[in-house]
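Record histidine kinase, 446 aa.
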Amino acid sequence: MGFRRAFAIGLAWRVALLLAAAMLLMWTLHQPDLGATRIVAGAAVIAAAVHLWGHIRRTNMEVARFVESLGHGDLSQAFGRAGAGSGFDELGRTLDQAMRRLREERLAIADEGRFAAALVDESPTALLTIDDEGRIDLANKAARKLFRRVAGVRREDFAIHGSTFTTALEAIRPGERRLTTMLLDGAAQRAMLVAAGIARMGAEMRLVSVQPIQSELNAVEIGAQADLVRVLTHEIMNSMTPVTSLAASAAGLMREVDDGRDPAIGDARLAVETLARRAAGIMHFVETYRQFIRTPEVAVRRFAGRPWAEEIGRLFAASAQGGDVRLDVAVPDDMLVDGDPDLLAQVAINLLKNGAEAAAGHAAEPAVRLELTPMPGGRTLIAITDNGPGVPAGFRDDVFLPFFTTKSNGTGVGLSLARRIVVAHGGTIALAPPEEADGARFEILI
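=>
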């Protein structure tokens, strides 16, 4: 309001001055004896017109400079001038306030942009962007860590994570979710893909999140198995406890009355003793499986790999299975492992014993191998290999299930318990494809 009033007053008196000078000039034109006055009046008209033009042009120049600054994105210009008069000091303050507000808004937008970028970059889920030409970019830290071995931006560059994964990545569309399999450090893992559509600079793109969920699936599966075993063992224990007790009592009574003279009593005694032994065997079997319910308590620490492997070798050599089976150990001298050495030793010894039993009945020179390999990201691959017959194709998906065993005297506890220990470490255990080993090869990644 101050600028408009001062500008209007300044404009009014300049117009009035111009009109007065023009009227004076017109009057002198009708007075033949006032030549000098006519010249002065003409000069006054010119001066008043220039003064009026400068007043109007000054406003236009200030506004034009303001607009030009906006056009070039230069918000550092200042317009305020003390003592400018005619309201131009007010105009300058108004333009400066506008500039200051624009600077604040720009800073707020930049701050929001940095926050959004940090939100994406720090997201724990790997994010990929895929444009219409198939270019795949790693959008955040999690993606750069997960796909650290990828050296390009094309689908073919992601082939190291498996053809199943690259096919799913190419096929997924915005709004879809896909469960797929990807190779991470050589181990197959399940992963969830979720896609959304976004636009960047007028171009449509797909934003795909990649979340490996093998550990979560393992935990859920093991939890379900533990619940099943808990129910079964509870019901079997409740049913078999009185049967076992009565069978043992009956066997004792039959021994007292059987003097060997009556064959029928002898047969009855034999039947009752067999029943008692089988009942006790079932109770032992159930009690063994109750171990599966207990979640292993993992005490992770960093330990040297070679001494750990050498100790396992000595324990294996002292076992019944290790007497006639050669053990090869391959561990880098300076290798360190993060894990619970006792629980991991339990897993390794169990796998070595299983491998030794398989190799002893198959190979002319039975052998097993324990190998530790450092992996990217500070992880460790523990591989146990034997030269036995391998695991039949029809059983490969069942070897880690509770109760499953291919041995006549097996309980089906060993591998399922090994899997629980590995999953408790946040790792994976898998049976390698048959083409990667002559016999069976179990790979543990922690």
